[in-house]
Sequence to fold (367 residues):
Amino acid sequence: MSHQVHSLGHVPISDHSFSADRSQLALARDISVEIYDTGSKYNLKTTLSGHDKTVTSVDIAPHSGRIVTCSQDRNALVWEPSPDGTYKPTLVLLRIDRAATYARWSPDEKKFAVGSGARAIAVCYFEEENDWWVSKHIKKPIRSTVLSVSWHPNSVLLAAGSTDSHARVFSTFIKGVDARPEPTIWGDRVPFQTLCGDFVSPAGGWVHDAAFSPSGNALALVTHDSSITIVYPSGPEQPPAAVVSVSTTLLPFKSLVWLSENEIIAAGHDCHPVIFTGSDQSGWVLDHSVDDPNEAKKNATSRENTALNMFRQMDLKGTPQASADDASLPTIHQNTITKLRPYAVGGGRVNSVSSTGVDGRVVIFDV
Fold:
């Protein structure tokens, strides 16, 4: 499996988003968002500076090119692209009193959702008559910080993962903004804030990420207990048809992407992605690692045993000699992977994903 590695400094990257044609990349790092022109080498084009605390999330709308950012300063901004390559920011009325943690555009780009530490999700839409972005809040029954949000393909249902160990599915239907959606397996009741599903992680771990499958008929969540759970609903107000959990011996995952209805890639504190495969009938298993550290160790050039070499150095010089290899990990990412995103899609499947990490690297993995 091939990969591209772009080292863009050493400042941790909390989130990233590529434009629809993959010609631009937005990186959320520290208190600003960096926009890069992509190519064989990524070149910094401009920096969006509108927040005064850490930017936690960034998302580029595929069709309009608008960028939404949110920050620990409790604000969200929508950046409107101009023909000359600049961006004009518009403040969003979030009305929250804690940090904004996560922002994503809906597939139809009429709305975006912002998770927060205020035990609320702000669903934002544009109000033409006042020419600004306003929000409606989803509060009940959220009891803690929302760490992630993910849209259903119909742009009405929204999944949210939280530090109260729950992943929930809500309706975000806003009259005058949304067309009434077709009934789904999650239910046909659409009033705003309707709870369509509520699922708890197996060992009560924080839900770091939750995402709908490509069809929208299943939900996957990764939690701080180092497990992944896939939920298959059976119908409105019915218990799920199947709930499949896979526990691993790895460190916790922070992010996941559905590659197809039967494949999921996840990554996090272990610094390399892993792929799970399965279905509601056969169950799910951890299939293989991408950028497997064990393979990297096997393929490394043979050298003397590190412990033996250390004692030899101590015998000769009275001090152990640390090499660069001793300090580096046998993976491409040298620290936690903070976010995975689909990069290339073909044949009804995601064929490559992009990742960013605390090490300041952007990596594109072919999967």
Q: What stands out?
A: The radius of gyration is 22 Å. The mean pLDDT is 92. The CA atoms of residues 271 and 333 lie 6 Å apart.
